[in-house]
Amino acid sequence: MRLPIFLGLSVLPALCQAEVTHESPPQILPLALTGPAYEIANQAYSAYNDKDYDLAIAKAQEALRQRSDVDRLRKLIQLAERDKDRRDHPERYPGNKRGFQNGDRSMRAYANGDYDRAADFARKAISEAPKNPDYRMMLIEALQRAQHLDEAELATNEAIGVLGESPQLSRRLDAIHEQKSVNIAAAGYASLARGDNDAAVSYARDVVRRYPQEIAYRRLLVSALIAQEQYAAARSAATEALALKGNDGTLLAQRGQMRMRLGDKSGARQDFAQALAVGNLPLREQASLYAAMGQPGEALERMQQARDKGELKPGDEVQIAYFLSQAGNDRAALDEFKRVDRSKGLSPKETQDAAYTAMRAPDDVQAIAYFKRVLDYQQTGDLQMPDQQVFDTRRAVSDLSRVWGVTNTTTYRGASTTSGLSGAPSSSNDSVQNSTEVFWRPEGYRDARFVELYGRVTDTLWNKESGNDKALDALQGAVGVRIKPFSEYNVMAAFERTFPLAGSNVDGDWLVRLGYGSSIGTDLRVDVPSWWTSQFYAEGGRYLQDKRNYFNSEWQLGRSIRLDRISPRLVIFAHVVAAVDYDSKMHSEVDAMGRNKTSGDSAGGAGVGIGVRYWFRETRHKAPQSYIDFSVQYREKVFGDDSAQGVFARMTFAW
After folding, report:
1. Rounded distance, CA 537 to CA 555, Å?
2. Does domain 35-90+97-164 have CATH number 1.10.10?
3. Which pLDDT score, from 0 to 100, does residue 19 have?
4. Which of 84, 280, 456, 464 is 20 to 30 A from 168, comparing alpha carbons?
């Protein structure tokens, strides 16, 4: 299989990582004091504690000059001025000590960063002076600093209830709500980073509901839905977000990925191009989009620029391999996989992708090595794979490893469906024929685009009509070459020379053949006990010297059932069958006894059949490479020659 163009292996991890990195939640509270301002502020607090109010005011004003954003310095000045006035004019403040001591303790604890104690003292001060706004603001800010946001929200609402609405309290309530949303979004990103996609989606939906206009939270929702593989929902969420902000490169790139996954290639390319035109994406993400658009040169150029600027992150090196693979350059992609593997090592998932890339390159030896590592990772638990995927991986190792094989087929009234090129039909239908073939693939599997050299010996073991050749008189050989030029289509062409053996009566000839086969469910399944199976083949050929043309085809459809009680490698196949044959020289009007027969150069029949196949010769890394198969059918004639009806049997041994 080709690496997905939808870039689950390239742009998607980069975009999600960009979210986690570049969308870090903003701080709502003021920045902590640092540097000279911090030292001067400490001196101001110390002076205040020593009741040197003039020095406290002077130091606080100097610290405030350096850090005008620190509101608590203004509060310190107000308190110092107030306490100075209280000290100098106590007659003006009857009962001025109510809540003051606990308020002072709260402020000191806050200044020392002990926000929980600051909140406790502020509550005591409020209990003594409920309508003092300073104590209530101290409680709210201490609770915010301690991240007790629900309590801070409750304290703010209580303050509004006692003191009434005010711009200061309204702004503080909005800040608390926003801070809670930031925390929810941060929890969503953390869930996404650790792979808890369900939790990430839940957090993202919650924060979008709270702040629907905030584009960063909508990006989180899109990323979480992508990770959860809800591609249609992710596309819709991206579209909704883009309606708020039309030129957001990240959202356009993500929506393009979803469109690609959902089959809308034209829409995906449009989104990718628009995302690149916006121009605010990091170089590494631009590279991903160029690769997805089939421009590997641009992708590699952007990745090189990112490397030169130090923007690459761990794992980015392997992205070059993915870019090349997505652009169809599997040979170069394999070279990159191998380079990264030598320098840093590939992860289990990257090893799996490298195996398929090597298979397409094609590099059979490297593909086998990578697939074996994948199976080892699965055995150790480092890579999770369903049972059928494990079997399919073992099947890939078996196919890639095969360079030669032997097939022996015995048929009664019928051709073989084992290879898609079964040879010319016999001149006599009521006969038993045996054929043994040995083939060799000199260049290996080559991603199912192989060349085979073969030799075959065929004989008629029994013939109902006594006048026809059999045994040594019918023994013939053949040598030839066949080519399977396409990976995706089971089309095969062959050219061979037939010749007599052991002085038989067979005439030698040149034979040209073309075959096509298609099958579903013909291999062993390990995930279900039964499954639908269909296999079809059609073959045409011409004997050049004899000027004889032929065509034969067969289609089987039925249910395969694994007989686990006997052996998990034993399968029975109950099916219906339809077959059509044509032979330009198959003419006869009377039989050997002089009786009339319905005959002609074509025949078509349909019926039912049963087959049994036993698989064997497997290893830990290889699926079963050999089988014995026996099937019997009964067909009724649909048209043409009488040869279309009756019993048909076939036994195959494939090594």
Report:
1. 7
2. no
3. 40
4. 84
610, 573 Cβ separation under 8 angstroms: yes
Average pLDDT across the chain, whole number: 85
Q: How confident is the model at residue 23 (pLDDT cuts 50, 70, 90)?
A: very low
| Fold matches, 35-90+97-164 and 399-654 | no
Each residue's pLDDT tens digit, 451-479: 999 999 999 998 876 667 778 888 999 99
d(CA 332, CA 141): 59
The pairing of strands 530-543 and 490-500 is unpaired
In this structure, whether the domain defined by 399-654 belongs to CATH 2.60.40 is answered with no
Q: Where are the domains of the chain?
A: 35-90+97-164, 399-654
For residue 11, is pLDDT > 60?
no
Contact at 8 Å (CB) between 520 and 552? Answer: no
DSSP for 285-332, written as a single string: HHHHHHHHTT-HHHHHHHHHHHHHTT---TT-TTHHHHHHHHTT-HHH
CA distances 44 to 30, 55, 115, 145, 535, Å, are: 19, 7, 20, 22, 89
DSSP type of residue 474: G
Provide the 8-state DSSP code for 565: T
What is the residue-wise DSSP string for 589-649? SB-TTS-B----SEEEEEEEEEEEEEEE---SSS---EEEEEEEEEEEEEEE-GGGSEEEE
Tokens of 485: 């030029």
Q: Mean pLDDT across the stretch 434-460? A: 96
Comparing 261-275, 415-429, 513-527, 637-651, the range with the smallest average pLDDT is: 415-429
pLDDT tens column, 136-147 = 888 888 888 877
Tell me which residue has tokens 């009377």: 590
Those residues with Cβ within 8 angstroms of residue 631's Cβ, 6 or more apart along the chain or in another chain: 573, 609, 610, 611, 612, 649, 650, 651
Residues shown for the chain: 655
In angstroms, the CA 316 to CA 344 distance is: 12
Mean pLDDT of the 196-221 span: 86
Compute the distance between CA of residue 102 and CA of residue 120 in angstroms, rounded to an integer: 9
Amino acid present at 359: M
Residue 147 carries which DSSP code? T
Residue 21 pLDDT > 50: no
